[in-house]
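Box S2. Input/output pair 1.
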Amino acid sequence: MGSYIPNNPSERDRMLETLGLKTADELYAQIPDEIKVKKLHLPGGLSELEVSRQIRRMADRNIRFKTIFRGAGAYRHYIPAIVKSITAKEEFVTAYTPYQAEISQGILQAIFEFQTAICRLTALDVANASMYDGASAAAESVTMCLERRRTKMIISATVDPMTLRTVRTYCHGKGVSLAVAPARDGVTDLEALAPDDTTAGIYIQQPNYYGLIEDAAAIGKKAHAAGAKFVTGVNPLSLAILKTPAENGADIATGEAQPLGLPLSFGGPYLGFMACTEALMRRLPGRIAGETADVDGRRAFVLTLQAREQHIRREKAPSNICSNQALCALAATAYMAALGPAGMRRAATQCLSKAHYAAAAISEIPGFALRYPGAFFHEFMTGCPGDAAAVMAALEKEGILGGYPLEGGILWCVTEMNTKEEIDHLVKILRETA
């Protein structure tokens, strides 16, 4: 989604005044100055071809990593060619959202198939058309949990920091009390988790931000014993081999679907998903595509349960979500269909086995021992003997994007895209750097 700044000075001034800002630059205050481009410094009088060459030379200064060992919320996976072939069709690329649902049968079927695939992954009863991203899906789950006398949410300290910040923002706007459950040994501290009769829900991430597998079933039982809802934010690819949210007792499952056929793409656009039990179906934000039959008995698709949306219920709506990431959802659907259950299990198993091979090799290097003892999927955290930035710089010289530096160590990620030779080369450089 782009930002709109009026060209008309009076309109622009009124907009800025309404927002409590003095200049348009203040709209982008969150963007670090060092990455802002104020001027391209192109000489005058250049032709279009000459300008294009200049821009390409500038772009060539960007570092392109051939080998990646970083995740932390965005993951590189193999994307079958058929995924791009399908999503590049103009009837899908040009369709924004099915406002005239009855004549948008192709888009509606694509959404329906996406919902069906998400339900099969999570083993929950119903999924919505999609959310903007994983963080907003997590935040929307808060509203689904709230009840008249239950206005407190508990979220684990082991979730993605960006998810935590988004949930905190939503809670602030809704007047919801948010408590952060502490971590112990890299996972949620079960003993410190104390929901009461004011707790609406508990949210955890599985696997969590440090790559570790949480005891989700135990946390779910604790939530339900207190009468609260249980929400899990999940990596969808991991569900091919891990227990489903339903098996762990989750009432709601959310997550970022970027691992399902969406490239890294410099940070987006991405795709949030959300599924829940039938009991919570009418609290789902956004829209649901349903299957029916037309007057001739043929299979047909409709938009259903839109009464929750803000363009119908206005200020009484539980959510302001009235659109969806249809094209990204189509890519995820094509990816899941292309791989199938067996293919997704193979991809997830490769991630798991290669990550454990890498973790064993890296942790043998002095100073790079594993930080946490628990089971993990395809991410793990090690220590770092010295300056993590220096380690990353040494890897960059070899065309490798290393793990994500965190306080106390480095968070590594290994997927099916990483070969044994790449892992061995990474370990060799780390030994030389340590």
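Box S3. Input/output pair 2.
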Amino acid sequence: MTIRYIAASRLPTPWATFTMHGFEDEATGKDHVVLTLGEVGDGQPVLGRVHSECLTGDALFSMRCDCGYQLQEALKRIAEAGRGVLLYLRQEGRGIGLLNKIRAYHLQDQGADTVEANEQLGFSADLRRYDLCLPMLEHLGIDSLRLMTNNPRKVEALTRVGVDVVERVGLTTGLNPHNEHYLSTKAGKLGHMMALGDFTPASDVDIERKP
């Protein structure tokens, strides 16, 4: 696997002006983005998130999941800390792709949960890969992460490919009537370390999101 660094630029956001770094996975042709803020290459653990692309949640304001809410909250926390990193990986729908994700949503509309829908389409519950994270972090001089995630499997996967995760930081936000069952399934079937009572309701996030 070859991850190639392309370029960097400023990225002003509502929370802070980040530096946006572009990378290309030459094996797949996919582009990935890393946002950094402050001095991240000083050897100290960096507050960070590894966020897989979710077009519906991140860009189209879907309330079926918590992805867009988590993305916003992670950027907000990094801005408040004045230092951090967010890896934005192009692996939509836990790795099954956008069109298959729409097919999975159709099955969920018929009553399947998020795991059952993937399995009915012939996929496992999660096909994401994290080996591409290590070369990007190494390029940026980041030695270790305080990782914002509710998913212990993500911590294990990153550790397995050589990323030093020194702390898991919970990220519970965006609960609403449309994603309550989805979140319960993530906790019950995928082992996410969270309870619905831990969540900040969707109405309390900084940027208004329309149903």
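Caption for Box S3: The beta strands are 3-12, 17-25, 30-37, 46-52, 84-89, 144-148, 164-169, 173-175, 200-201. The helical segments are 55-59, 67-81, 98-109, 114-120, 133-139, 152-160, 180-190.
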